[in-house]
């Protein structure tokens, strides 16, 4: 295996650019880090360009990278740490080519639509929960944080490899669902909203959740079948968007 020891190496410089959204967009690639994420990428046949292993982890992680049909490069601890956004890098990374899912969504199972969700941890948790709940896919509406942000990817725990995640305009997805007679549920606290407990379990629906501070855009809420709220018995004003969406996903889709 080739060993790279200089932080000035051309490939290392290109990998460092993937720590920024601009760099990811330009190269159409992103970085993942951790044994679990790299294993998931291999298992679900992500388009891996190269696997990067820290020199002192070569033997420990052999069982992972030996499963891949990808180049494996060994780097120093200094280089590995420079590619990590965390204080304790785990010593194995991969460069993945960005590809949108080959097939679009059918609506045969529930779809989660996200309107300007800003926190990367929330985004990752929403994708992971949609995967766990058995949803068909997730639509990232305009203004939503970058899917390939390192914190987002850590929070997904690899679920973005399991479930279709598409970028799209929610205003255009609503007619798609409506034409298939699929109900669309927004989340709100306005006078139109009803308790989620009044909704019967369903196999097909769209669920829209929104920005942490402002909720779902008013222009979107006007186009939904119903807008739902979760009754709160305690003193908290509201729930975290990922928690609220999790309750709704598991309750409505059974």
Question: Any idea of the CATH class of the largest domain?
Answer: Alpha Beta
- Give the low-pLDDT segments: none
Coarse shape: elongated
The separation of the N and C termini measures 49 Å
CATH topology (level 3) name of the largest domain: Alpha/beta knot
Summarize model confidence as the mean pLDDT. Answer: 95
Rg for CA atoms: 20 Å
Taking the sheet with the most strands, its summary is: 7 strands, parallel
- Classified in CATH, the superfamily of the largest domain is SPOUT methyltransferase, trefoil knot domain
Described by its quaternary structure, the protein is: single chain
Q: Which sequence of SSEs, written as H and E, runs from N to C?
A: EHHEHEHEHEEHEHHEHEEEHEH
Structural class: alpha/beta
Please tally the helical runs, counting DSSP H or I stretches of 4 or more residues.
Answer: 11
Number of domains: 2
Please count the beta strands (DSSP E, at least 2 residues each): 12
């Amino acid at each position: 295996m080739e060993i790279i020891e200089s932080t000035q190496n051309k490939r290392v410089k290109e990998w460092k650019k993937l720590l920024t959204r601009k760099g990811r967009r330009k190269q159409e690639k992103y970085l993942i880090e951790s044994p679990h994420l790299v294993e998931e990428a291999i298992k679900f046949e992500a388009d891996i360009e190269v696997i990067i292993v820290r020199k002192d982890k070569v033997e420990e992680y052999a069982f992972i990278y030996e499963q891949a049909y990808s180049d494996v490069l060994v780097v120093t601890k200094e280089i590995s740490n420079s590619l990590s956004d965390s204080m304790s890098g785990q010593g194995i990374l991969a460069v993945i080519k960005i590809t949108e899912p080959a097939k679009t969504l059918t609506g045969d199972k529930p779809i989660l639509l996200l309107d300007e969700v800003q926190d990367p941890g929330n985004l990752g948790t929403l994708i992971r929960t949609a995967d766990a709940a058995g949803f068909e896919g997730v639509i990232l509406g305009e203004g939503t944080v970058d899917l390939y942000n390192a914190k987002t990817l850590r929070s997904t725990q690899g679920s973005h490899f399991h479930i279709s995640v598409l970028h799209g305009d929610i205003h255009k997805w609503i007619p798609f669902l409506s034409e298939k007679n699929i109900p669309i549920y927004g989340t709100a606290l306005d006078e139109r909203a009803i308790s989620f407990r009044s909704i019967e379990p369903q196999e097909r629906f769209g669920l829209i959740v929104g920005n942490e501070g402002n909720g779902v855009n008013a222009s979107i809420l006007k186009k939904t079948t119903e807008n739902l709220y979760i009754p709160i018995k305690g003193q908290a004003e509201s729930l975290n968007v990922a928690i609220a969406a999790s309750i709704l996903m598991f309750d409505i889709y059974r």
